[in-house]
Amino acid sequence: MAQRQYQHIAARLKQELTDQTFVVGTRLPTERDYAQRFEVSRTVVREAFIMLEIEGWVEVRKGSGTYLLERPARSPADGDEEIGPFELLDARQVVESAIAAHAAQRISKAELLALSSLLERERELLAREEAGQRDFEAADSTDQAFHLGIARASQNAMLVEIAQRLWEQRRSTMWRRLHGRILDFSYRGEWLEHHQRILAMLRKRDEEGARDAMWNHIERVKEVLFALSDTDDPGFDGFLFDTPTAAH
Amino acid sequence: MAQRQYQHIAARLKQELTDQTFVVGTRLPTERDYAQRFEVSRTVVREAFIMLEIEGWVEVRKGSGTYLLERPARSPADGDEEIGPFELLDARQVVESAIAAHAAQRISKAELLALSSLLERERELLAREEAGQRDFEAADSTDQAFHLGIARASQNAMLVEIAQRLWEQRRSTMWRRLHGRILDFSYRGEWLEHHQRILAMLRKRDEEGARDAMWNHIERVKEVLFALSDTDDPGFDGFLFDTPTAAH
DNA sequence: CTTGGTTAAATGGCATACCAATTTGACGCA
DNA sequence: TGCGTCAAATTGGTATGCCATTTAACCAAG
After folding, report:
1. Reported pTM
2. By a Cβ cutoff of 8 Å, what residues of chain B touch chain A?
3. pLDDT per residue as tens digits for the range A26-74
4. What CATH number belongs to A77-243?
5. What secondary structure does DSSP assign to B32-76, as a single string?
6. pLDDT tens for residues A98-130?
7. Is domain B85-246 annotated with CATH 3.40.50.720?
8. Which fold has domain B5-68?
9. Of A181, A211, B63, B129, which has the fewest beta carbons less than 10 angstroms from its beta carbon?
């Protein structure tokens, strides 16, 4: 596995905290428990908890335990109606393309380099995958890093926050289910091309080009998602088409 | 000292990275070095590095070392840093203009009517104000209702949520202070004209027109805000120009 | 039955030791 | 002289063990 283990465990913990019903204030299982359950050392779990602590999910009390704080991420069970995949993609299309355009005029050379190395990483992962080594976690986090990196390049903290919020939505169960498909069905090469095109526009500081490239990228993701919903998975379409914007 | 040592060490590391001149990309001293220097175990240093990694300061490479990334312009977890007025307006400009364009193709007749009646109300309030009856609260809430109404017209719950989040930011003390000025200095007539132009574009379902109208509206708000910062209010500019995007 | 203190178990904090990946440079061969 | 190879040193990764704090269970005194 490419990623640092603590990040992997942290992702699983977050998933558990969002999916499962842990009431706010609950004491979570101990580090030792999780270590045993995930079959890693307590050190790794501890580091994962540190990540959650930094991100504001939990509070760690020495000698007592780890406690769930109010969730920073929007949780479907908070009474908010869950956002469907197509609706979320629409929102991302609108917002991220605008952010990309803005970033095109403000991105630094260092940030261009950072994005470039992310794409290098995507290329590597893709090659490995073709060799049979799949690493969904790594692919997913690289994808996210690229998109959030663009938001960061806008030099605007509010836009970064908004972009993060959009990506957090993937945690919802409904969405997670589809997400794997998108990154799996050998569309990864296509996404890489899209990302390269976006980066090229940012490099040229081409505002309109960046906007269009990002727009088309997400447009294509929507198309793929739509096509995938025609597969033979029973009950797959069921929830897809409840969303207002799903009727394309 | 912070409760957990890693936080203390992380703070010292950040200070060192800010003060000292470590060139971007430099390999930092090893975990063992810092452990010795700070007289703590390598574990603690390692946890501190994890914090820096999460916050985007450094990249950690197994077997190689820890490398300084471009210093994040704004560190995410340094406590929720307050967003400055110009930064917020930039974000609103980017996001709301994109939302307006999206809404232009989806707004319903009922929503057009609702927006129209909001403008009617703006007109009323303006007339009353000229007669000496000021009602800041009403003017403010009408303004917000118009902008959020457009977000709602996008038919996308996520976009509505984002727009709300943007408007919530005005409640911050720093921002509130300026906000009164913008709505007071008899710019209200101008804002009304802008809103009418935006609504007209939405009526025509003119995507680009709506985008531009919203963009120009907020652009003008920024100009006014900038001009107002030249007034004689002592300490007024002080905080305004600390924000990265303030240097127009 | 209540209350207070004592104690033992549980839990996170920290340090140490060993593992694995990477880097470096020395050595040998062309 | 230059380059390829390989082994040792370097460095982060992980596991384990012990320490300090907190919690709660228990018992004795009132």
Report:
1. 0.62
2. 3-4, 6, 24, 43, 47, 50-51, 54-56, 60, 69-70, 72-74, 76-77, 81, 83, 87-88, 90-91, 94-95, 97-99, 101-102, 154-159, 161-162, 165-166, 169, 244-245
3. 889 999 999 998 888 999 999 999 998 888 888 888 888 898 887 554 3
4. 1.20.120.530
5. HHHHHHHTS-HHHHHHHHHHHHHTTSEEEETTTEEEE-PPPSS-T
6. 999 999 999 999 999 999 988 988 888 888 777
7. no
8. Arc Repressor Mutant, subunit A (1.10.10)
9. B63
